[in-house]
């Protein structure tokens, strides 16, 4: 229903509104999960949120693919000019989802948070440490698996990677919330102060990593749409594939940067601020 109230073309022009949709979809997703799957709502909340976001993102991908196919000559700036709108939509959606999971993790009692978001907590391995450890090679390898899965999921089904992106937003949201809640419990300070601090510390590698996943989703998604909309190996089809390849290689570079930042900067910052 919401995708009819807010058409994809309108969201494309007002990417910031994806933040509002991200917040709304996540609240509805968590509420639906608690009602229908009260024993394991964490994963169900991600699934419901993804389903709500899927129609608009699929329509956006179609618009972006058609725009890329209309370009007459290839230029290295084309992929970023053609797809900056859907990239912005994904980013705003990601932040909206993350914020809701963070707030729920902060305001709910410890027992409720641990039960409702058990899947997210287990995924990140929160057990006295703020973020998962590991060296550069280990972190990059793990992130590369997620990256390739996002690429393949989007190629098979347009916006299929949205589940992965929202899942990562939910995990990060719970991480921020748990860090802030636990730190506030020890010091008796406002948990939202620690939430902002955690955001500042983790944001550099989180945003870089999330951007890589989003670019993988866009790369696979526009090729998926081109297979349906354009004749194989035609000029328009080739133009879309060229865009996708440029986005893919830039995304791999971002993934390498994210792993380096997490290994050499984020872990040290956590030690400095005492989180």
Describe the structure.
It is built from eleven helices and no strands. The chain has helices at 2-5, 8-13, 17-36, 41-70, 78-107, 110-116, 118-124, 136-156, 162-187, 191-229, 235-273. α4 (41-70) crosses α9 (162-187), α4 crosses α10 and α5 runs antiparallel to α10.
Keyphrases for this structure?
11 helices, 275 residues
Question: What order do the helices and strands come in, and which of them pair?
Answer:
Blueprint: H1 2-5, H2 8-13, H3 17-36, H4 41-70, H5 78-107, H6 110-116, H7 118-124, H8 136-156, H9 162-187, H10 191-229, H11 235-273
Count of domains: 1
What is the H/E order?
A: HHHHHHHHHHH
List low-confidence stretches: 125-130
DSSP summary, beta strand count:
0
Please tell me what the overall shape is. globular
Cα-based radius of gyration, to the nearest Å = 19 Å
Q: Quick summary of this structure?
A:
With 275 residues, the protein is mainly alpha-helical.
